[in-house]
Each structure stands twice: as structure tokens, then as C-alpha cells.
Amino acid sequence: MDYSPYVFLGLGAAISVLGFFLKRMKEEVDRLKTRNTRIEINQARNFEKITNLEKLSEDRREDIKKLFEKSNG
Q1: Interatomic CA distance for residues 67 and 73, integer angstroms
Q2: What is the pLDDT of residues 5-63, one digit of tens each?
Q3: CA-only gyration radius of the chain, Å
Q4: Residue 62 carries which DSSP code?
Q5: Cα separations (Å) of 23 from 16, 45, 52, 66?
Q6: What is the Cα–Cα distance from 29 to 32, expressed in whole angstroms?
Q7: What is the pTM of this model?
Q8: Distances (CA, A) of 61 to 1, 49, 53, 67
Q9: How far apart are CA 55 and CA 31, in angstroms?
Q10: What angle do CA 4, 5, 11 make, to 5 degrees?
């Protein structure tokens, strides 16, 4: 069976277009992975800050209780 050169030209163009869009999708996925990593790091940092703030507020609460007991007691 003999194929026309235009068939191969069309097939080559289709593969080329497919490769172009796959490359763009890969770049977008890589960019989203980077953004997701940065968000996860920031979220972990915020969680640590919240944990430290809760501990500090609990310590201050205990200090205020002690001061109140000393002043009334």
C-alpha cells in the first residue's frame, strides 16, 4: 500500500502539535507543583506560629491567674 506524502506530512504536523501542547501542560503542572510546595511550606510555618501563640497565651493566662490570686489573696 502506497501512502501519499501528504499523509505523512499531516501525521507529522499532528504529532508536532500534540508535542507542543504536552510540553505546555507539563510546564503548567510544574508551575502548579512549585506553587503547591510553597503553599504547603507556608501552611506548616503558620501552623507552628499558631502553636507557639497558643502556648504563649496559655502561659500568660496562667500568669494572670497567679497575679489575681496574689492580689486577692
Answers
A1: 10
A2: 999 999 999 999 999 999 999 999 999 999 999 999 999 999 999 999 999 999 999 99
A3: 31
A4: H
A5: 11, 33, 44, 65
A6: 5
A7: 0.63
A8: 88, 18, 12, 10
A9: 36
A10: 100
User: Can you spell out the DSSP letters for 3-39?
Assistant: --HHHHHHHHHHHHHHHHHHHHHHHHHHHHHHHHHHH
The single-letter code of the amino acid at 34 is: T
Grid cell in block for residue 30: 510544574
Could you tell me the three cell numbers for 43?
501552611
Element (H, E) at 48: helix 5-72
Cell of 15: 504529532
Query: 40: helix, coil or strand?
Result: helix
CA angle 48–30–17, rounded 5-degree value: 165
Cβ neighbours of residue 11 under 8 Å, at least 6 residues apart? Answer: none
Instruction: Copy the grid coordinates of residue 39.
Output: 503553599
